[in-house]
Amino acid sequence: MVVDAVVLAGRENTGKLKDSSPEKWEANIEIAGKPMVAYVLDALLGVPMIGTVYLVGPEDALARYKSPRVTLVEPGDGLLDNVKKGLARASTECVLVCASDIPLITPEIVQDLLRRCLESGADFCYPVSSKEDCDRVYPGVKRTYVTLRDGTFTGGNMFFVRKSSVEKAWPMAEKMIEYRKSPLKMVSVLGPGFLLRFALKTLTVSDLEKKFGSLLSLNPKAILNVRPEVGVDVDKPSDLELCRRELAK
Question: Structure pTM?
Answer without folding.
Answer: 0.94
